[in-house]
Amino acid sequence: MPLLDRILFPRPRLSDARLRRAVGGRTVLLTGASFGIGEALALLLGRAGAALILVARTADKLDAVCDAVVAAGGQAMAVACDLTDPAAVEALIAALPPVDILVSNAGKSIRRGFWASTGRPQDVGRTIALNYTAPARLVSALGPGLRDRGGQVVSVAAANLLLPPPPGWAAYQASKAAFDQWLRAVRPELVAAGVAAGTAYLPLVRTRMIAPTAAYDRVPAMTPDHAARVIARLLVTRRAYWRPWWLFGAAAASAAIRPLWERVSVAWAKRHG
Ligand SMILES: NC(=O)c1ccc[n+]([C@@H]2O[C@H](COP(=O)([O-])OP(=O)(O)OC[C@H]3O[C@@H](n4cnc5c(N)ncnc54)[C@H](OP(=O)(O)O)[C@@H]3O)[C@@H](O)[C@H]2O)c1
Questions:
Q1: pLDDT, tens digit, for every residue of 86-99?
Q2: Number of domains in the chain
Q3: What pLDDT is stored for residue 251 in this prediction?
Q4: How many A from CA of 96 to the centre of ligand 1?
Q5: Strands of 101-104's sheet, edge to edge?
Q6: 217-254 burial, b for 16+ CB within 10 Å, e for fewer?
Q7: Percent of the chain whose pLDDT exceeds 70
């Protein structure tokens, strides 16, 4: 691993025994398990003894992840579901056994500038449906059961939610921010009732999600396995959030640089818009 990546993304401490205590024998609903971070997390949690319910749209890929978990000695079942479809989400909820842990990882990103988006209402609709409405519905529907079982919710969010919003990512950024705000707002009530809730603010992760953006090819990025360990550590610690160490003070810095950011981002849009 290049030196810069090692400095930016030090390997999280994760004890196999503590992970097994946190998830072993527990029923874990993991969305977005067919590719990328979710796939890596499914394999990690499967090895730690979790009983996994894996959700995504691509049924054959989901089955392959399921088979890999089982081949490594774990337990998993695959449920193909389009989480942008409210009726499919309700059918999923109705079919679920009692769940101990929800990892809300499924996500869709769109990079498209405002002027290219004016005739595309689906950009906002689809990102909101997947990145906000579906996870909020899942947490709400599973909430009473999670409370009875001392359960846990982990949201897979993006580190740039802690920074000024970048041009070109409005639909993605806003939909991820919506669920982040929602979960932070309900977290006190969840925690008071014995349900842990945490958010992983991940930096760039080298998955198919960032592959279309050529500019990211030469930028440091976590591996999916590394991101999975970060999320697993949140499951172990039951903390409120994880963020990269270099985003310490990000909220304060973000407020302080806002005037400068507004000027710089307009200059950027004039050049690239
Ligand atoms: N990659 C990054 O740089 C990065 C950084 C910060 C945060 N994140 C977050 O990390 C999470 C995982 O992203 P990733 O990088 O692993 O991307 P990915 O490889 O594209 O995986 C996204 C997952 O979400 C599933 N998904 C997409 N649309 C869905 C739908 N309509 N219904 C059900 N499942 C759906 C996909 O499965 P199907 O296509 O089979 O449905 C896939 O399993 C996302 O929430 C993302 O916002 C990523």
A1: 999 999 999 999 99
A2: 1
A3: 80
A4: 21
A5: 75-80, 51-56, 27-31, 101-104, 152-158, 196-202, 241-242
A6: eeebbbbbebbbbbbbbbbbeeeebbbbeebeebeeeb
A7: 100
Angle in degrees, CA 70, 71, 76, rounded to 5:
10
Under DSSP, is residue 80 helix (H, G, I), strand (E, B) or coil? strand
Can you list the pairs that 243-252 forms with residues at least 24 positions away whose Cβ atoms lie under 8 Å?
243/159, 243/162, 243/201, 244/8, 244/9, 244/159, 244/201, 244/203, 245/10, 246/8, 247/159, 247/162, 247/163, 247/201, 250/159, 250/162, 250/163, 251/162
* Ligand 1 atom at minimal distance to the Cα of residue 176: 47
Max distance between CA atoms of the chain, in angstroms, equals 55
Q: Domain of 75: which CATH number?
A: 3.40.50.720
Place of tokens 């985003």: 247
Q: Report the atom number in ligand 1 closest to the C-alpha of 33.
A: 43
Q: Which pTM was predicted?
A: 0.97
Cβ burial of 270 (10 Å; 0-12, 13-18, 19+) is: exposed
CB-based contact 201:159 (threshold 8 Å): yes
Residue span of the structural domain in which 89 resides: 3-272
Compute the distance between CA of residue 38 and CA of residue 82 in angstroms, rounded to an integer: 15
Q: Cα of 159 to ligand 1 centre, how many Å?
A: 15
